């Protein structure tokens, strides 16, 4: 049995589910803050293995989904300009802006390209010196180092026709914002293992202590998720509120120091508007003054963008954990992957997309 098979082993999953049932004496609300974990939970029916009363709340764990509408509209405005090649990850092309999406703009003739790495966009810029190449970069702390590296390399090579539209978000501040919310009902968190691979676990320690919530760093396979849930519920049952690393095969307590150094060199921490959640204090990363020459917002003057959120879309409530996707009246009817109202239905890590793909004939 290889490692992937081991962490998808049905016998191990059933054993962990039984162990969770054995220690659970009361209802608990636990939030995962990772779209990959959400998809694993729904795809493998992990929530259906848990004791009655253990409620999994799907949080704002999809970075594409929480990218504010204004940045989608900024990307659309830049991509529509003559002489511009706009590059991004594939997920971003279907995310609806106020009027259309990048894929629709591409169909109208705009030069919009899917790349697998921001350094691919650098190569495009080198091959097309007569055109402006813009990389639209979003994501948690996980993807920020790769985009930081592209900025660093562009500066080192004095590349004049390359810039970045950056909208990175940070996980610890949004956890704090959720816990401070008047409608918060989360009692424990599964932390995103990929974020902690970069940043380590230290930022979560003050949160666990101040708000008296366990935070268990967790992987993405079914056995990983169940292991994380067992550790979180065990802490809750014992009255402990600690940061626990249940993903030690990947996550080190200190994270990746080299990646962290690159983030400090290229970015600054800023307040960031999260789609569906509003302004989060210290919730984002932006290019710092040393890299302002590569800031696409400044280069193309797209600050004044008038955005229009669709009234019928409830993705904000989904991202806050107040509503499960299948409880939205538009789910699977007016809102589908082919005609989405919001990003949570089209992103590969979106909760609505997970429910539509694996559970659209079920409710609740």
Compose a concise summary of this entry:
This protein has 364 residues and is of the alpha/beta class. The chain has helices at residues 3-6, 10-23, 35-43, 46-49, 63-66, 69-79, 102-107, 118-127, 144-156, 171-180, 193-199, 205-211, 222-238, 257-266, 296-300, 315-319, 351-359, and strands at residues 28-32, 54-58, 84-88, 111-114, 132-139, 162-169, 188-192, 215-218, 243-245, 267-274, 278-287.
How would you portray this structure in words?
Helix 2 (10-23) runs parallel beside helix 13 (222-238), helix 3 (35-43) runs parallel beside helix 17 (351-359) and helix 9 (144-156) packs across helix 14 (257-266). It is globular and about 65 Å long. The chain contains 17 helices and 11 strands. The model has no long low-confidence stretch (mean pLDDT 93). It has helices at 3-6, 10-23, 35-43, 46-49, 63-66, 69-79, 102-107, 118-127, 144-156, 171-180, 193-199, 205-211, 222-238, 257-266, 296-300, 315-319, 351-359, and strands at residues 28-32, 54-58, 84-88, 111-114, 132-139, 162-169, 188-192, 215-218, 243-245, 267-274, 278-287. It has a 6-stranded mixed beta sheet, with helices on both faces. Strands 2-1-7-8-9 form a 5-stranded parallel beta sheet. It folds into 2 domains: 18-304, HypD, alpha/beta domain 2 (Rossmann fold); 315-357, no CATH class. With 364 residues, the protein is of the alpha/beta class. Helix 7 links the parallel strand 3 (84-88) and strand 4.
Tags for this entry?
single chain, 364 residues, alpha/beta, Rossmann fold, 2 domains, 6-stranded mixed β-sheet, globular
């Amino acid at each position: 049995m290889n490692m992937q098979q081991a962490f998808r082993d049905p016998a191990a999953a059933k054993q962990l589910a039984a162990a969770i049932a054995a220690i659970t004496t009361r209802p608990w609300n636990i939030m995962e803050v990772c779209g990959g974990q959400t998809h694993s939970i729904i795809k493998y029916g992990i929530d259906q293995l848990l004791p009655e009363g253990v409620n999994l709340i799907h949080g704002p764990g999809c970075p594409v989904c929480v990218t504010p509408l204004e940045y989608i509209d900024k990307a659309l405005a830049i991509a529509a300009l003559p002489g511009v090649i706009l590059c991004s990850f594939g997920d971003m092309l279907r995310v609806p802006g106020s009027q259309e999406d990048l894929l629709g703009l591409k169909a109208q003739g705009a030069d919009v390209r899917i790349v697998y790495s921001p350094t691919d966009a650098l190569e495009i810029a080198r091959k097309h010196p007569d055109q402006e190449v813009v990389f639209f970069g979003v994501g948690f702390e996980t993807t920020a180092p790769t985009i930081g590296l592209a900025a660093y390399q562009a500066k080192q090579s004095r590349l004049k026709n390359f810039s970045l539209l950056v909208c990175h978000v940070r996980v610890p501040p949004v956890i704090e914002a959720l816990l401070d919310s008047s409608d918060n009902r989360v009692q424990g968190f599964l932390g995103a293992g990929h974020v902690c691979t970069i940043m380590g676990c230290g930022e979560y320690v003050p949160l666990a202590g101040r708000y008296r919530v366990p935070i268990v760093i967790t992987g993405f396979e079914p056995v990983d998720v169940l292991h994380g849930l067992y550790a979180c519920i065990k802490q809750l049952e014992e009255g402990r509120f600690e940061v626990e690393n249940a993903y030690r095969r990947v996550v080190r307590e200190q994270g990746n120091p080299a990646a962290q150094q690159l983030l400090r060199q290229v970015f600054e921490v800023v307040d960031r508007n999260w789609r569906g959640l509003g302004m989060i204090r210290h919730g984002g990363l932006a290019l710092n003054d040393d890299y302002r020459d590569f800031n696409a917002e400044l280069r193309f003057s797209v600050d004044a963008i008038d955005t229009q959120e669709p009234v019928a879309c409830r993705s904000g409530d989904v991202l806050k954990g107040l509503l499960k996707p299948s409880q939205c009246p538009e789910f699977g009817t007016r809102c589908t992957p082919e005609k989405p109202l919001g990003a949570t239905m089209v992103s590969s890590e979106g909760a609505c997309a997970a429910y539509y793909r694996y559970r659209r004939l079920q409710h609740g």
